[in-house]
Design brief:
By secondary structure, this protein is mainly alpha-helical. It is 53% helix and 4% strand. It has 13 helices and four strands. α7 (138-148) crosses α11 and α11 (209-234) runs antiparallel to α12 (241-259). It binds zinc ion (ZN).
């Protein structure tokens, strides 16, 4: 019974991906459950950590939240404050909220387009096994999960919610802070990649090192870059490439030791 219910809920997600939501009066769209913001959920319950959300609050429509009925909880998280100010910029009208087929051709539902749309979605979630593997340090899972869902609050994203004086990258101070820049284009990050690649060539690892690399290097690196960036935002403490590199090495070593029985020699 539980199993078939899960199946049905999964289907619901697929069906939702075939629609675009158009806001009217905001009373027919569920704030928490419907992907009404750029085809995504604007905020996920997981972003509240362990805070319990009241059932009546969970059933709020977009309009309820905008009218301020239940929004104290949202003020408790950083993202929530931004969401609330973003909500103030939404213009509702008198029409009812509607779901529009995304997969239309000649004003008719098109099954080919629908299939293509579902198939792409399947490919998109290929990263889930990487994120939710039990081999990852848990505090890093959440950052990764946000990264893969493109939900990290990078400054280019923040700009959509609020006026910020500066959208430059905090690590190099040069380019706009987008996720692509932060994790693959930034000189700070590129220097870390260079060190990682160099370190790997020097070391001998068992053939399943691919797994370790995938789990440890990618995840640990992403996490530490994001933490360094946050430290610069929130505490003004600036670590250099060396500090971040040392943290990565430390965490990778702990992971390697936990997962595999590797001789001391090989670990070094
Ligand atoms: Zn940068």
């Amino acid at each position: 019974m539980v199993w078939s219910l899960k199946k049905i809920l999964k289907l619901k997600d697929i069906v939702i991906s075939l629609f675009d939501i158009q806001l009217g009066n905001g009373r027919g769209i569920l704030f928490w459950y419907d992907p009404w913001f750029e085809n995504l959920h604007i905020v996920l319950k997981a972003e509240f950590g362990g805070v319990r959300i009241r059932r009546d609050f969970l059933n709020s429509s977009v309009r309820d939240i905008r009218d301020g009925d239940y929004n104290t909880l949202l003020r408790g998280i950083l993202e929530g404050v931004r969401i609330l100010s973003f909500m103030q910029t939404i213009h509702f009208n008198d029409n009812i909220d509607s779901w529009v087929w995304k997969v239309e051709r000649d004003v008719k539902f098109n099954s080919n387009l629908a299939w293509e749309s579902i198939r792409e979605r399947g490919n998109d979630v290929g990263w889930t096994h990487v994120v939710w593997s039990s081999n990852i340090i848990p505090r890093q899972q959440f950052v990764l999960w946000l990264l893969f869902r493109k939900r990290l609050s990078t400054r280019d994203r923040l700009k959509r919610f609020m006026d910020i004086p500066d959208s430059k990258c905090l690590l190099c101070g040069d380019n706009e802070e987008t996720m692509d820049h932060l994790f693959s284009g930034c000189p700070f990050t590129l220097e870390l990649w260079r060190r990682i690649i160099k370190a790997m060539e020097l070391a001998f690892f068992p053939s399943d090192w691919i797994d370790i690399k995938e789990m440890a290097i990618l995840k640990v690196k992403v996490y530490h870059i994001w933490m360094e960036r946050n430290s610069r935002v929130f505490t003004r403490v600036r670590g250099g490439v060396d500090d971040v590199w040392n943290n990565i090495k430390f965490d990778c070593n702990s992971l390697v030791r936990t997962w595999r029985r590797i001789s001391k020699n090989e670990q070094n």
